[in-house]
Amino acid sequence: MRPLMNAHVSPPAPLTQDWDALDHGKYADEGEVVRGLLARVPLTPAEREAVVAQAIDLVELARKTQKTEGVVESFLQEFSLGTREGLALMCLAEALLRIPDEDTRDKLIAEKIGSADWASHLGQSENLFVNASTWGLMLTGKLVDVDEDARRDLPGFLRRVAGRLGEPVIRQAVAAAVRMMGEQFVVGRTIQGALKRANRERWLCSFDMLGEGARTVADAERYETIYAKAIHGVGKAIPERKEMQGPMTGHGVSVKLSALSPRYEATQEARVWAELYPRV
Question: What is the pTM of this model?
């Protein structure tokens, strides 16, 4: 990869601290914003060429790496989070980790998987494992005994069996795919487990507790307790790597403000300041 060792980036102009101006610009056109930011960091022609060259190297390396990735990575490449199916799997992965009740889990699987267009993924992946997972999630003859009419009309078959996704064998098949997603995006069931895995893998993390937005004051109080325990747990944990020790270079916790207030809304500014600010 071509390094940028010799490139000298001019210091950026001071950024405004006017929060009103920042708030005003949140709906600005992205292209205009990017051009404005680029203007704040003027680059020489040589510096721009170095940036473009490194970007090309990174893209080529990423494309080359796809061929050697494992089955989990291939699955994620096929069902990316930019698709309805990928989003459904992520929602399911988060929810299944917190739902011990099988009946509730079955209903959630039926709701999420039944609304996704799995048929559009058939035959699109070069990795056989991804295609096999797709067929499994579509509930073809590999999981249930279907007649030839169903085999000839898979979209229609999916619609007919989507409501029966609660059958144990189907639930297990879907849960297996969901666990695969969860292992990629969910570091652990508890903060202690997440810290252990992060340190083992030598990751530096800002942990998200996967909390939903609070709907009641009781919800906000419960999430506050959960966040406090997580922050204390992260604070007490001492990473093995010295460069990751300390409040500025160690693990952190991402706090979802809407989880700490049931009325985290622009129209409730006074209440937000009165209730949320002390919690934070």
Answer: 0.47
